[in-house]
Amino acid sequence: METTDLTNVEVNSILIATWFMHSGFAVNYENHLNESLNLATDFLKNNGIDNENINKVLELITSAWGKDEPKSESEKIMKDVRTWFYASSDFEELLQLLRLELENFNKSVPDIDTWRLDYVEELRVRHRFYSDYAKENWQEQKEDNILSLISRLQKAEKTEKKEVLKARLKDESPQRAIQSLYRIELRNHIKLSDIADTKANILLSVNAIIISLLLANLLPKLDSPSNSYLIYPTVIFVLFSIASMIMSVLATRPKVDNA
After folding, report:
1. Would residue 243 count as lying in a domain?
2. Do 66 and 47 belong to one domain?
3. Structural domain includes residue 183
4. pLDDT at residue 199, rounded to an integer
5. What's the pLDDT at 175?
6. In sequence order, what DSSP letters do the residues of 88-123 get, joined into one string?
7. Are residues 57 and 37 in the same domain?
8. For 159-181, what is the mean pLDDT?
């Protein structure tokens, strides 16, 4: 406001109007404008401000939220102050906070892409800055924010198309399900083969130990007539051990398909 020709009274009116412009939201979210006017009126009357200056402040607050074109430099400034965040470098974050605020007050909030699209239209078509200061210092950042919103919308659209295409291909390609089935079957077959190999190795090792003990300890004793009763048990042990080893090898032998 230093670059304008506003009087001190007008500057003070703008500052006070700015203080109370959003205060009504703390009292009544639905009827915030009237509450802001009431709060400003009470404050100014309690501080001995005359009715003429009070009305100026109230007119500025009303013009900030109205849709009519501003009639004075003060009203231009108020309209720009109300929409300053359109030119904020944290515009996306502020939009998210505003969205969260509306949800907390049980307002109907569209999905995030529709929300962004609405603000693209707001910034490109319906909104404009009025004061010279805002045009010179805020317009460029506002345009950057528009481009950022459009970029996010395009990325979201590409992601959505990819998801739709992936889902369509998955539905239209039963081969993927067949491939998954074969992979599971192969994995189970490998696990079962590994278990069978392990058990066969255990049987081979145990029977090899039994045969070694028989050959080392019992066979030398069979020469004595007094140990003839050991012949049959020894033969049975050896035969069963050899048979067990043969069956273990046969059980783990890979099955080869001629086809």
Report:
1. yes
2. yes
3. no
4. 75
5. 65
6. -TTHHHHHHHHHHHHHHTT-----HHHHHHHHHHII
7. yes
8. 67
Summarised one tens digit per residue, pLDDT across range 127-167 is 999 999 999 999 999 999 999 989 888 888 888 777 766 66
* Residue 259 pLDDT exceeds 50: no
pLDDT in tens, 55-68: 999 999 999 999 89
| Same-domain status, 65 and 2 | yes
Place of tokens 């398909």: 257
**Cβ atoms within 10 Å, residue 147:** 10
Contact 103, 47 (CB under 8 A): no
Same domain? 55 vs 112: no
Task: Confirm whether 258 is domain-assigned.
Answer: no
Pairwise pLDDT comparison (89 vs 230), residue with the higher score? 89
Residue with tokens 């009274």: 9
Residue range of the domain that includes 69: 1-82
Number of domains the chain is built from:
3
Asked if residue 179 belongs to a domain, the reply is no
